[in-house]
Amino acid sequence: MDRRSFLEIMIATGLLGAGLPGCSSSQPLRMGLHPWIGYESLYLAEEFGWLPQRVRLLHGASATDSLQGLADGQLDAAALTLDEMLRARNGGLPLVAALIMDVSAGADVLMVHPAISRLPELAGKRIAVEPSALGELMLQRALERAGLAASDIQRVDLPVNRHLEAWQQGAIDASVCYEPVASLLAAAGGERLFDSRQLPDTIFDVLAVNAERGANRSQDVTELILAHFRGLDHLVRNPHDALYRVASRQQVSVAVVRRSLAGIMLPDLAANHRYLAGDSRIERAASQMIGLASDSDTSDAKVGEFYSARWLPRRLP
Question: Which compartments is it annotated to reside in (predicted)?
Fold first, then answer.
C-alpha cells in the first residue's frame, strides 16, 4: 500500500472510481488524482470550473492507480509523493516535478501507547511501519533522536491501513503513520511522540509531469498549475466553505480536515520558484529517500534532473 491510499484507510468513503480510461491523441492533458488533503486545491478547482478546457482530472482510489496510468501511457501527469515519483523514474518513466503541492509538517507521525513518554523508551517495543522510503525515514530519524539502533526495537512491517487493527489487538506498541490514521489511533488512546515537524523540508508531494509530453503541452501544464493556485487561494481565503467541501468529499468530519491541513504546508508560487530553481532542499530530500529505501526500485535510483521550474507561471493573475 502506498502512503497516500486515503480511501483504503477510511471506512466506506464511497470515492472509488471506475478506473482510468484509455488515451488517444485527441484527448486533453490527463492528470491522475487521488484523495489526499494536499491535493484538495485541484478538487476545488474542478468543482468550481477553474480547470483549463484542455486539462482533465482522472480520479483514482490511490497513487497506485496514477502510477499504473502513467506506466500505461493513459496519463500525462499525476499527483505523487516524491519517493513515488523517484521510484517511477527509476522504472523508466521520464517524470519531472513541476510543482511542490505540499510539504509534510506534522502529518507524518510516530504514535505510541501512553505508557511510552520518551523516545528512548521505544527500546524493545513493537513498532509498526509500512515498507517504504518515507516510513523508513521517519523510523530511522526517530531512532536517531532516541539514541537507539534498529536492532533495539521490534520492527513490524505492516501496511498503514492495518495499523489501527493491530493497535486494537494489542499487537503493536507504536505506529509510524500519517493522517487520518494518526487521528484514529489518537481516538484509540495513542499519543504523538515524534512527527515530521522535526524533519522540515523533507517529505514532499509533487505534481509529476511526463517530461516528454509536458514539453509539447507547456501551456496546458502551466494553466493546470494556475488552477491549483486558484484552488489554494480559495482554501486560504474561504476556509469555512472549503473545509466543508473537503469534509463532504472525503466523508470525514471537519475536525479531521482541520487536523490534516494543520499537518502540511502549502507552498505558494514564490516558494515553488525557490524550491524548483536549484533549491538544495528538494535534492537533499530525494537523496535521503533513495538512501533509506527498503526496496531495490528506489534504492537503485539516481538523483538527476527530476524537478523543473519551466512550467511555473511568473506571476498569478
Answer: Periplasm
CA atoms within 13 A on the CB side of 106: 11
Residue 13 and residue 99 in one domain = yes
List the one residue out of 180, 17, 207, 191 whose CA is nearest residue 107: 180
The pLDDT tens digits of the residues spanning 81-90 come to 998 899 899 8
Residues 56 and 139 in one domain: no
Q: Which domain holds residue 153?
A: 109-198
In a domain, 38, yes or no: yes
11 with 74, same domain: the answer is yes
Run of H or E residues at 80: strand 77-81
Q: At residue 188, what are phi and psi to the nearest 5 degrees?
A: -90, 5
Which of 167, 198, 229 is the endpoint of a domain?
Answer: 198
Q: Are 307 and 278 in contact (CB under 8 A)?
A: no
* Sign, Cα dihedral of 156, 161, 165, 168: positive
Domain harbouring 164, CATH code:
3.40.190.10
Do residues 210 and 189 share a domain? no
pLDDT in tens, 194-219: 999 999 888 899 999 999 999 999 99
For residue 90, the model assigns a pLDDT of: 87
Last residue of a domain, one of 152, 173, 198: 198
Q: Are residues 286 and 230 in the same domain?
A: yes
How far apart CA 198 and CA 29 sit, in angstroms, is 37
Mean pLDDT of 107-129: 97
Name the percent of the chain in helix, strand, coil, to the closest 5.
45, 20, 35
pLDDT tens figures, 132-146 = 778 888 999 999 999
The predicted pLDDT at position 2 comes to 52
